[in-house]
């Protein structure tokens, strides 16, 4: 727990897989970062998206991110790798059919 964000950001092994999240929610810091940095949502839009959050919660999550950039970016990479592996091991029925018919997915 980083005291610079008060008690708004917590890490517990039984909540969100031990990832940093907003206290009392199952919203990870990573989720807020993706919405803000990658999808271009403003803090107000994030609060509209998840009305149980406050602006202070969103700003605390972003402050935590900027204090722990390497950690959160590693979590993003790990999550992306897990998703890619899951996708490879469990292709959609449409992709399997296209593969059988000789089509390849555009990369």
In terms of topology, how is this protein built?
Layout: E1 9-10, E2 21-22, H1 29-38, H2 43-49, H3 55-67, H4 69-89, H5 93-100
Antiparallel strand pairs: 1-2
Describe the structure.
It is a single chain. With 107 residues, the chain is mainly alpha-helical. It has a domain at 3-75: Winged helix-like DNA-binding domain superfamily/Winged helix DNA-binding domain (Arc Repressor Mutant, subunit A, Orthogonal Bundle). Helices cover 55% and strands 4% of the residues. The chain has five helices and two strands. It has helices spanning 29-38, 43-49, 55-67, 69-89, 93-100, and strands spanning 9-10, 21-22. It has a two-stranded antiparallel sheet. The radius of gyration is 17 Å and the shape is elongated. The termini are far apart. The mean pLDDT is 88.
User: Largest sheet, if any?
Assistant: 2 strands, antiparallel
Outline: elongated
Number of helices: 5
Please report which band the strand proportion falls in: under 5%, 5-15%, 15-25%, 25-35%, 35-45% or over 45%: under 5%
Widest β-sheet, arrangement of strands = 1-2
Tell me, rounded to a whole number, the average pLDDT.
88
What is shown here, in short?
With 107 residues, the protein is mostly helical.
Short descriptors:
4% strand, 5 helices, two-stranded antiparallel ribbon, Arc Repressor Mutant, subunit A, mainly alpha, elongated, 2 strands, 107 residues
